[in-house]
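F.,

This is the one I mentioned.
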C-alpha cells in the first residue's frame, strides 16, 4: 500500500486548493500500485470558476431543452474528478471542503476498487433559500431570509445572488410548484407548495435580511412557517459514479447538492456506509438536495446502503431502477431502441452478453427474451442492438436489460423531511429493506413502481423483503405497491414479504397493493387500516 499525502502537492488547509486537486488526481492515474491518498485534517476551499470541466451525462438530471443558449449542455465543473484510477482509497481524515459555486462535487468514472471516506462537503451561499414568516397582517407578510442568502435591491427590485447564479426573488413564482414548506408546529414535516411570492404585490426592503410583501390576502401564511426556495433544474450532482466497479463511500457528509446527492449509473457493487446527507446542524436551511438523495440506475451486483442519515431531500431518499428503452425500429436481428425521458440519455449501459426482456408497455409483462450480441450508441438518444432474436420484439414496446438489475440491502438508516417518497424501488434483484426509520415522507415510505409511459423507469419486482421498519407520519400509504400498467393481464410484481413493521400516526391503509401475486404480511403493528388490494392473489396473513 502506497501512502500519498495531499500536502506534498501543495494542498494545505485554510487555502483555495482547486487547481492543486487537479494536479493530484492527474498524478494518481500514473500510480498502478494500491494506494491511499491522505489529507491533513482541516478546512479546504474550492472555487467553481477554477475547476476543470467535463462532459457528464448524468441520468435523471437536466434535459437538453432546459439549458440556456449560453450554456454547453452537460458540461460540469468538478473539483474531485477520478477517471481510470483503480485500487485507491481517498481519506479526507474528517476534513471539510467548502465549495463556492455550482459544481458536481465528485465524479468517479471508469474506476475499480475505490474508497472515499471521512469527507465533509459544504457549499457557501448555496442556491437554497429559507423564507421565514416573522409577521403576518391582513394584506402583508414579513419574511426573514436565512443568513447564507445574499440579498440585494436594485432599482427597487429584490435579487438573490452568489457565484454562478443571480435572479429576482420572485423568479418563476407563477410556476414554482416544488417549493418546500415546513410549518412551525410540525418541524419534521416538509411538503411541496406554491412559491411564497405567488400573487405578491410590492416587495419592500426592511433591512437585516427582512422583506415586506403585500398580497390580496394572506390566508395561506402562518407566523413561524418556513419556505425553501430554489432553482429546480437538476443541472449537477453531488457524487456521480459512472461505469465503475466496487465503489465504497464511507462517512461522507454532504450538506447540499445541486441536484441528486449521489448517482450511480451503469456501475457494479456500490457500498454506502455511515453517510450523512443533511444540512449542517446550525443551518437555517432544512433541505440538503434539489432532488433525490440517491439514484441507482442500470447498475449490477449488490447495492448496500447502511447506517446512514438522510434529512431534507428535494425528492426521494432513494430510487433504484433501470431504464425502459422504447423499440423504434426492427431490421432482421437488429433493434434500434431509444431513451424516452429527456432527463436520461447520452450513455450506453446495454452490454454485449446481457439478456433483455421484451416488455408490453400496457401490461408491463414480459413477452420474450433475447441476448445482446452487439451494442452501439448511435447518438445521445438512440442505441443500435444486434440480438439473438427479435421474435417477440414490437415497435412501440420497450426492452428491459434484466442483467442490469442489482440486489439491494437498505438497512439501519434514518430518513426525515423527505419531500416525496422514502424509497422508490423497481428492480428484479433481491431487495432487503430492514431496520429503518421513515419519518415524515410527504408521500409513501416505500413505493414499488414500474412504468413504461412516463419516467420509463423499469422494472418488475421479484423478491422484496420489508422487515422491522418503523413508519412515522407518512403523508400517503406507507407501503404502496403500484405498477403503472394500463391493462391488467397478470401480476407485475411478485413475492413481497412485509414482516414485523410498525406503522404509527397514520389513519389510512398502511399497505396498498395492485396487480401483485404472493404477498406475505406477518406480525406487523398497524395504527390505521391494514391493507387494500386490487387484482392481487396469494395474500398470506400470519399475525400473532
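My design for it:
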Amino acid at each position: 500500500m502506497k501512502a500519498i499525502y495531499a500536502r506534498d502537492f501543495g494542498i494545505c488547509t485554510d487555502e483555495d486548493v482547486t487547481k492543486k486537486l487537479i494536479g493530484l488526481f492527474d498524478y494518481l492515474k500514473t500510480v498502478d500500485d494500491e494506494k491511499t491518498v491522505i489529507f491533513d485534517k482541516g478546512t479546504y476551499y474550492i472555487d467553481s470558476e477554477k475547476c476543470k470541466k467535463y462532459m457528464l451525462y448524468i441520468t435523471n438530471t437536466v434535459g437538453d431543452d432546459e439549458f440556456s443558449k449560453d450554456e454547453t449542455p452537460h458540461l460540469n465543473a468538478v473539483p474531485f474528478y477520478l477517471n481510470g484510477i483503480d485500487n485507491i482509497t481517498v481519506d479526507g481524515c474528517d476534513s471539510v471542503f467548502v465549495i463556492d459555486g455550482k459544481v458536481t462535487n465528485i465524479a468517479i468514472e471508469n474506476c475499480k476498487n475505490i474508497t472515499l471516506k471521512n469527507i465533509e462537503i459544504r457549499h457557501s451561499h448555496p442556491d437554497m433559500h429559507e423564507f421565514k414568516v416573522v409577521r403576518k397582517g391582513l394584506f402583508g407578510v414579513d419574511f426573514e431570509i436565512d443568513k447564507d442568502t445574499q440579498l440585494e435591491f436594485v432599482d427597487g427590485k429584490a435579487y438573490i445572488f452568489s457565484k454562478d447564479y443571480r435572479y429576482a426573488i420572485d423568479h418563476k413564482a407563477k410556476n414554482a410548484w416544488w417549493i418546500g414548506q415546513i410549518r412551525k408546529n410540525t418541524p419534521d414535516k416538509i411538503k411541496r407548495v406554491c412559491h411564497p411570492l405567488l400573487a405578491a404585490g410590492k416587495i419592500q426592503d426592511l433591512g437585516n435580511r427582512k422583506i415586506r410583501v403585500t398580497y390580496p390576502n394572506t390566508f395561506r401564511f402562518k407566523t413561524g412557517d418556513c419556505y425553501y426556495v430554489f432553482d429546480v433544474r437538476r443541472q449537477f450532482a453531488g457524487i456521480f459514479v459512472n461505469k465503475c466497479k466496487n465503489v465504497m463511500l464511507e462517512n461522507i457528509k454532504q450538506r447540499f447538492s445541486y441536484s441528486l446527492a449521489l448517482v450511480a449509473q451503469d456501475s457494479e457493487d456500490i457500498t454506502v456506509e455511515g453517510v450523512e446527507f443533511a444540512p449542517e446542524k446550525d443551518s437555517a436551511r432544512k433541505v440538503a438536495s434539489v432532488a433525490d438523495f440517491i439514484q441507482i440506475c442500470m447498475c449490477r451486483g449488490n447495492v448496500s446502503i447502511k447506517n446512514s442519515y438522510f434529512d431534507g431531500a428535494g425528492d426521494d431518499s432513494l430510487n433504484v431502477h433501470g431504464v425502459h428503452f422504447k423499440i423504434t425500429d426492427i431490421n432482421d436481428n437488429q433493434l434500434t431502441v431509444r431513451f424516452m425521458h429527456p432527463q436520461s440519455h447520452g450513455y450506453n449501459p446495454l452490454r454485449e452478453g446481457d439478456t433483455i426482456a421484451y416488455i408490453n408497455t400496457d401490461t408491463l409483462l414480459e413477452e420474450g427474451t433475447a441476448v445482446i450480441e452487439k451494442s452501439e450508441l448511435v447518438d445521445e438518444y438512440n442505441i443500435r442492438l444486434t440480438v439473438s432474436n427479435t421474435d417477440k420484439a414490437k415497435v412501440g414496446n420497450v426492452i428491459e436489460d434484466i442483467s442490469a438489475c442489482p440486489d439491494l440491502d437498505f438497512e439501519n438508516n434514518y430518513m426525515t423531511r423527505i419531500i416525496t417518497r422514502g424509497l422508490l424501488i423497481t428492480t428484479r434483484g433481491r431487495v432487503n429493506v430492514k431496520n429503518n426509520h421513515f419519518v415524515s415522507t410527504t408521500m409513501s415510505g416505500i413505493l414499488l413502481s414500474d412504468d413504461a409511459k412516463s419516467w420509463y423507469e423499469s422494472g418488475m419486482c421479484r423478491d422484496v423483503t420489508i422487515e422491522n421498519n418503523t413508519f412515522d407520519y407518512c403523508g400517503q400509504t406507507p407501503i404502496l405497491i403500484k405498477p403503472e400498467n394500463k391493462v391488467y393481464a397478470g401480476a407485475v410484481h411478485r413475492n413481497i414479504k412485509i414482516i414485523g413493521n410498525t406503522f404509527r400516526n397514520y389513519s389510512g391503509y398502511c399497505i396498498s397493493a395492485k396487480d401483485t401475486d404472493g404477498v406475505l404480511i406477518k406480525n406487523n403493528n398497524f395504527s390505521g387500516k391494514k391493507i387494500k388490494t386490487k387484482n392481487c392473489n396469494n395474500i398470506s396473513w400470519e399475525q400473532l
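The chain has one helix and 50 strands.

Talk soon.
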